[in-house]
Amino acid sequence: VQLVESGGGLVQTGGSLRLSCAASGRTFSTDSMAWFRATSGKKREEREFVASIGWDGVNADYAESMKRRVTISSDKAKRMVYLQMTSLRPEDTAVYYCAVGLRQGWTPADYDFWGQGTQVTVSS
Fold first, then answer.
1. Antiparallel, parallel or unpaired: β 113-114 and 32-38
2. Which helix (H) or strand (E) holds 52?
3. Average pLDDT of the chain to the nearest whole number
4. What distance in Å separates the CA atoms of residue 114 and residue 124, rounded to the nearest whole number?
5. Which residues contact 65 (CB under 8 A, 6 or more apart)?
6. How many Cβ atoms sit within 10 Å of the Cβ of residue 122?
7. Who contacts 116 (Cβ-Cβ below 8 Å, separation ≥6)?
8. If we measure between CA atoms, which residue out of 41, 37, 2 comes closest to residue 19?
């Protein structure tokens, strides 16, 4: 499975961004997709859960700290997953990673495949 994230960039406090993740290779309809984030130097197991969803677009789940500001969605036909982020804050600055796995969970260990990440920088 290959995952490629896009949509990151520099945005001012209060701004919005929409991240995209394109999946290719083997994926099953029962897979779950997720977004995690990490500041520089963090190991994979230290990445912070942001949101997850099933390929069929149901069972969206969010980190409590972000649920009011992010929306995850998926397009099964296009094999795309999106993360809409609003009201961004400087503390949201991080590399955002897309991941896929058979188990929809809150930890990096629940996901088997990862993209390279896309940088989001929020200026104050």
1. unpaired
2. strand 48-54
3. 94
4. 30
5. none
6. 20
7. 4, 5, 97
8. 37
